[in-house]
Write a structure and sequence with these properties.
mainly alpha, two-stranded antiparallel sheet, two-stranded antiparallel ribbon, 4 strands, elongated, disordered N terminus
């Protein structure tokens, strides 16, 4: 019988043969048919011939030199068996030392010529599928959803004799596995979300969960610049009067932070030492709103302009850093007098509000005096 030696041994045999290649004569088809095949017939074919060949090594199938070149791995095994004198078995007829040397030298020379001819050629490379981990990582990279695990129902990848799960010979593809790949693709497709300008992928598959996911992202974005502490009027069961209140509501702009930054950096901004964007970033503010507030505060108070804004501008010019609170209190008073929050559930209804925040009706056509 011929055993299955390791790849390391195969590599050592070929490397050793190359190192001493100058000692070995060239091989030819005539030598194989006239000298080598008769020796194989005499000492090897009894065990290694036909469909019932030992170790599934059919040496009789190698009719010509071209047949040998199509399966050099078998001849690496043959060379190892000859050099270690494991073949022929002890109970079988043994070749003379001269016959063994002839056979061994020819096989060695054949392997050297093949190694030279195929130098730099990795040989047959199997077109393989992705293994389970590669498939998961690829899907996650493409979709941007790190929790997807479409291969959780796949069979475990085999490592074969190589010890690697990405070896092509180890990655089989059965009809059942094809069905699992199709099911995995359908599962990934359920996470697809259609957009007006393309697609994206979500970790969720239901419309409700996707809507909640978007709301969380919106809240996270706005929470960087607005009040997020729940106040009276922010919940469904709060009284209507509390819901109409506009002061420091969840989602409102923290005016104290903006006015404090504007007062602290008033000199640097006025002299052009700092930009609006730099000050906003330094204090964690929204740059667009901070610039709009700054421009409004530093406009000249026009006689025909807004009485409310002119009053706020005057207080701003007189205020110091420690006087932020009185300034903000004044603005809150005007906000509460001029604006209100209407119930969101009534928006769009007949006779209902058109928006959440609406101006207060502070003018009256008639007034009764007693």
């Amino acid at each position: 019988m011929i055993s299955n030696p390791s790849i390391a041994k195969h590599g050592f045999v070929v490397a050793l043969a190359l190192a001493f290649s100058w000692l070995v004569p060239s091989v030819s088809a005539e030598d194989y048919s006239e000298k080598i095949r008769p020796l194989l017939d005499q000492f090897c074919f009894d065990c290694h011939e036909g469909e019932d060949a030992e170790a599934e090594v059919d040496l009789d199938s190698f009719k010509s030199l071209d047949d040998l070149r199509r399966d050099t791995k078998t001849w690496v095994k043959v060379e190892e068996m000859l050099s270690s004198r494991q073949m022929p078995p002890r109970k079988s007829d043994q070749p003379t030392d001269e016959q063994r040397a002839t056979l061994q030298q020819w096989v060695n020379g054949f392997l050297i010529e093949e190694a030279r001819a195929l130098a730099g050629d990795p040989g047959r490379v199997v077109l393989r599928r992705l293994n389970n981990d590669e498939y998961n990582y690829s899907v996650r990279d493409i979709t941007g959803v790190p929790t997807l695990n479409p291969t959780r129902e796949f069979p475990v990848d085999g490592a074969a004799g190589e010890g690697f799960t990405n070896a092509g010979d180890a990655l089989g593809m059965s009809p059942a596995l094809v069905d699992k790949f199709l099911d995995a693709g359908k599962e990934v497709a359920r996470h697809l979300v259609l957009l007006p300008d393309g697609i994206r992928f979500s970790k969720y598959t239901t419309e409700r969960d996707r809507a909640d996911e978007i709301m969380v992202r919106i809240h996270q974005f706005y929470s960087r610049f607005v009040n997020v502490n729940r106040q009276l009027g922010d919940t469904w069961d709060d009284p209507a009067t509390a819901k109409a209140n506009v002061i420091r509501r969840n989602g409102s702009i923290p005016l104290e932070a903006y006015f404090a930054a504007a007062l602290a950096e008033r000199g640097a901004l006025g002299q052009g030492e700092k930009s609006m964007a730099a000050v906003a970033a330094e204090h964690g503010l929204n740059a667009k709103y901070f610039e709009a507030l700054w421009n409004m505060l530093n406009q000249d108070a026009a006689p025909g302009g807004s009485l409310v804004l002119n009053r706020i501008r005057a207080l701003w010019r007189e205020a110091r850093l420690a006087e932020v609170k009185p300034l903000v209190v004044t603005i809150h008073q005007w906000q509460q007098a001029l604006w209100r929050f209407d119930p969101i559930g009534h928006i769009g209804r007949e006779g209902g509000p058109t928006a959440w925040m609406n101006p207060q009706g502070i003018t009256q056509s008639t007034q009764d005096f007693s």
